[in-house]
Amino acid sequence: MICVDKNAAKIAGLNQGILPIYEPDLDRLVEDTRKAGRLSFTCDLAMAVKDADIVFIAVGTPARAGHGDADLSFVYMAAKEIAPFLAEGAVVAVKSTVPVGTGDAVDKIIGSVRRRGSYSVASNPEFLREGAAISDFLKPDRVVIGVEDPHAQAVLMQLYRQPLAVYDIPVVITRRRTSELIKYAANAFLATKITFMNELADLCEQVGSDISDLALGIGLDRRIGSSFLNAGPGYGGSCFPKDTLALLRTAQDYGVALRVVEETVTANEARKRKMALKVLEAVGGDVDGLTIAVLGLTFKPDTDDMREAPSVPLIETLQRFGATVRAHDPVGMPNAAQMLEDVTLVDDPYECARGADAVVIVTEWECIRRLDLSRLKGVMQSPVLIDLRNAFAQDAAEAAGFRVTMIGKPARSHKDANFIAATEQGANAGISPVRLPEPGQQRGSGHGQR
Ligand code: UDX
User: Fold this and answer.
1) Domain coordinates of the chain in residue numbers?
2) What is residue 273's DSSP assignment?
3) Which residues line ligand 1 (CB under 6 A)?
4) What is the mean pLDDT of the chain?
């Protein structure tokens, strides 16, 4: 496997085992595979392409500023540049997340450069999540292959057959345009699932219901499924926000209304903005002059990615309301420093919270979930905890002396101590209570633009 990039510094780093992103265990895997001679990095496109049976295009497809549609210039440039060097019968597989019809355009671009010889263009979208990239890639729920000719299908199946057989992973073989749309549909569906739960969490807060139990109660219905039901501050990252917008743009171009997706996008943006109000409410209505500690900055745990992270609008709004913000993230602080102004970034979470009037949990890193709540409370000015990920058990946080605000949880007065005791007795009598997996343990919840 030969990987090509135009960025010489990135390639030089990779050849010394230095990765440009944080992804758990990826550095070890890259180093081992490189040392075994099965992986190399170069800026020499001709050398990498000329003997390849399959050329994957995996460049970024960022949202075009102010438009929402995907910027395909990197994909088209890659197609043009590889075209003269393609071997006879080579398959060009587009891994980047691209709108319907991009494969057709890539085919045309290559065809206009290569007037002789055969090649195929296929779609092979990637579904891995940041933070879980290795396991998601090696053991995906499915592999999707979009082809327009049997040769491309045979070549890609030859690549995937053996690894797919090991874990009995299904493969979906379809036409190129369907494969392209599958990726957007999957991301839009997941974004909608999260938004549905976020809105139900708001309702839970108003009517005295509990979003975690609700998620359990609906998630055990196999038609719904128990993953991706964690309410929070709104989804972020490099994919859901960008891909939902690009899907809407495609639908508009073809005169089709995707109203559910439209509402998902609008609701998620509004949700991220309104999280600051939760903090205001928790501190008594006004943050002017207060110090707020924010724990967790990246859009999700186990990544250093800050793209579309809910922490950014939250912090900016709190600052506009007059708060001084201190923040901590175990891995994301160098990237956060490029995006946030006037925020003191602190290496140690307890030091971050020292003297604060409230602490806000925005990303549920495992090391944050394991914080000693009594110690945390001990260093603060006021014991106010706003947990936007339900990362802590409410009982434990209250027992540590915090005034707690969570997502989608009833105010404490709704809880009846006798009822809790009775249900616990029920559990002891042999009724096994079921719990949904914690956010960090879920499958189905991968860096770079996809
Ligand atoms: C997503 C898709 O899951 C993946 O298949 C695709 O290839 C790329 O986009 P990623 O963006 O890496 O992956 O992370 P994901 O785990 O899906 O989380 C996205 C956002 O949703 C995060 O902000 C996360 O905190 C949020 N989320 C996820 C929730 O708020 N609740 C959930 O239950 C799950």
Assistant:
1) 44-174, 189-416
2) H
3) 126-130, 187, 190, 194, 228-230, 232, 235-237, 239-240, 299-300, 445-446, 450
4) 92
